């Protein structure tokens, strides 16, 4: 889209702030307006953006607010991005007030809405989305802390208080449940599924899978065939 490229380039030349949601950062990178900026983008486009715009610093964070470039890789990342922008422009007080309102609304909604994720605080949802966006190449607890702006101890407390489990265990459950969906509904081999879900070997994958479901992945029913 050469017209879009020119529009973005002209906007950047005039000092305008530019943002992209989900895969929006790809268009910013293609137009050359993300050089020397950090950004967040949906995992499926990270490799493409890296090839197209090698001067861009791509992070696995759910959102990145880098000077006048605003990018988010997920819906909750977009919310956190806007809270970060409010905090930058108007201070912590207003941002915390907005967070409090959102948390109150969330608490009311949880009484009638299904799904554990709806009951999570904004901070915990940000960390969970980091995990969900990085299943193939998993993040360490230190990386989760750095990208979420929370300490390791704070992260552990969030998981224990709201989910009754540890971050490591929850991350493993995300990977295992994704691997089961891939085995059931794709034609990927056990080895390919193991790689897609961040396991270093088939034997380790099989051991974890059997511990969770009671049988090895080779015995999983292939519903998509």
Into which percentage range does the β-strand content fall? Answer: 5-15%
Given the C-alpha coordinates, what overall shape results? globular
Number of strands: 5
Mean pLDDT: 84
What Rg, in angstroms, do the CA atoms define?
A: 20 Å
Q: Biggest sheet, strands in spatial order?
A: 1-5-4
Distance between the termini: 39 Å
Biggest sheet overview: 3 strands, mixed
Structural class: mainly alpha
Determine the fraction of residues in helical runs and give it as a percent range.
55-70%
N-to-C SSE series? HEHEHEEEHHHHHHHH
Number of helices: 11
Low-confidence stretches: 104-115
Keyword list:
globular, mainly alpha, 3-stranded mixed beta sheet, two-stranded parallel ribbon, 225 residues, 58% helix, 8% strand
Describe the structure.
Helix content is 58%, strand content 8%. By secondary structure, it is mainly alpha-helical. The protein starts with a helix and ends in a 12-residue tail after the last helix. The relative contact order is 0.07.
Task: Write a brief caption for the model.
With 225 residues, the protein is mainly alpha-helical. Helices cover 58% and strands 8% of the residues. It contains 11 helices and 5 strands.
């Amino acid at each position: 889209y050469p017209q879009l490229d020119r529009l973005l380039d002209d906007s950047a030349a005039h000092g305008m702030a530019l943002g992209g949601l989900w895969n929006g950062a790809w268009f910013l990178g293609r137009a050359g307006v993300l050089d020397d900026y950090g950004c967040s983008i949906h995992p499926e486009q990270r490799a493409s953006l890296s090839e197209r715009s090698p001067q861009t610093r791509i992070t696995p964070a759910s959102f990145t607010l880098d000077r006048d470039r605003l990018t988010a890789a997920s819906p909750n990342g977009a919310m956190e991005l806007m809270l970060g922008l409010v905090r930058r422009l108007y201070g912590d007080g207003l941002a915390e007030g907005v967070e409090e309102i959102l948390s109150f609304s969330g608490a009311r909604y949880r009484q009638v809405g299904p799904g554990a994720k709806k009951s999570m605080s904004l901070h915990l949802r940000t960390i969970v989305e980091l995990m969900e966006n990085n299943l193939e190449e998993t993040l360490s607890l230190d990386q989760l802390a750095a990208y979420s702006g929370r300490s390791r101890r704070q992260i552990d407390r969030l998981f224990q208080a709201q989910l009754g489990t540890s971050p490591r265990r929850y991350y493993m459950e995300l990977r295992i449940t994704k691997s089961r969906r891939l085995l059931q509904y794709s034609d990927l081999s056990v080895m390919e599924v193991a790689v897609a879900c961040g396991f270093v070997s088939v034997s380790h994958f099989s051991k974890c899978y059997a511990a969770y479901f009671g049988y090895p992945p080779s015995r999983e029913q292939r519903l998509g065939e």
